[in-house]
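tool_call: predict_structure(chain=1)
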Amino acid sequence: MFHSKWCFAPENHYYCVLCRHRENINFARRNNTIFSQVISKKTYRRWHKWLGVGFGFFLLLFALSGLVLNHRHSFGNMDLSRQWLPAGYQFSNWNNGLLRGTLRLSADSILVYGAGGVWLTDAHGQRFADHTAGMGSGADARTIRNVVRTKRGELFACAPFDAYQWREGSWRRLAVGHASTLHPTRFSDVTTRGDSVVFVGRDSLYVATPPYSHFQGVELHAPAGYTNKVSLFRTLWLVHSGEIGGLMGKLIVDLVALLLVFLCLSGFVIWLLPKWIRRRRNKGLWQKGLRWHFRWHDRWGRYALPLLVFITLTGFALRPPLLLAVARIATPPIPGSLLDSPNPWQDKLRALRWDANRSDWLLSTSDGFYSLPDFRHQPVREAQAPAVSVMGINVLTLSADQQSWIVGSFAGLYYWHRGSGKAYDYFTHAPALTRPASPFGQTAVSGFSSDFGDDIVCTYDHGTDALRQPCWMARLPISLWQLALEVHTGRIYTFLGPVRLIYIFFASLLTLVILWSGWTIRKRKQGTKDMLGRCGEGC
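tool_result:
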């Protein structure tokens, strides 16, 4: 749109509607052109308007879901029903990680655990009873990573931020690690050796012996050839969320998210309000409201632009297709940040098992597999280990003959014989990949069980038909935080089909175009004001 007080007149002239001052349009053309600015500005306004209107709702969801993701503990107890979500999010045939593993307690009792909690069933999987008494009330606290039993018969379980022990007919929370609200201990696994129990945090191990009243933190030694570098993916993740700067960094990102919410809502008002104004006899109040929204939409858009662009670009790199490259790059940590830690295993530990055949611990990390005879020794890298998805390991258990390890993740399922160093595909028996080609393989394995006779393999999307899922489990809730993650990553838009894997790629490009066109409109508007300031003082 041209400057409000200037209109075109015949014979290649334009004039000011206030003072009737006329100028030859050829003069503007010779002076780097009002005419071209008018045309360009109209184009940019169309882009900003229609892309903003069309994609504004998704931008609003980006901002709101980001706020929830940034405060997991504040929203951890809030759940939502799955019946309002797309069909792919309903629990059916143990999909979506509902069955992660099992633990046989006796000849006719088996514990089944996974994304919805823990259940007690019989040897044939015909009757299921809830076994989550004492656990946290939210779905996030009932996302069970592993359940183990010691030689004494003590039961332990771990959720992402909770460690449990079964005592006197219910689960009891254990004081393991630290309970900081900003950086709470995050658990990835729990395992046993004899009467000892070990909770695996993302950074350290926590070991206890009977009566399990005190857990000692153990920080593992650095492996041979260790260099103080961190994953570029983790760096960008912490930068994107603001966590890299501690509480202040998170608050800054929260502020940017709130500004984005305002920009989206005010943009909708600017688009809709003129239609309302034309239908009203008393237009004064409505026009003031429009001017207010326009003024602050413009002002806060300019103020927040650098941070919005920065957050858009960092989010762009955290999803496919750039994810594949980012996940494999290691960089020096940002000095003084959360990443700049003396602990060489910060956010790297994933699973731990005692290998009785080789009398050592088998450690799964984000950098691969390592072995160590005890926690005081230096971990040694396993050179011939099968590939594990960057999304993390889901299965690590001994085979029926107790000679091989079964390793499963979204990259597939493999047999691994550590003695010979051979690894092969569980289904095709083809040689295993030593490095995943992508985060998702042909079989995205989310769970495994051998306690019902034949092996049961669960995939994330389709689950398994080998074990009947009770109908009432389909109604198990989803945590608000998990739903926010699905929205923020675009996975919830199932109507997009395979395109949703690269939804962030296109969403980031559209966001950048919206931001750039808005900035260009503002810049050209100011330039036009300067050029047209030649009009008389009476205007």
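agent: Residues 230-331 form one domain. Proceeding to next step.
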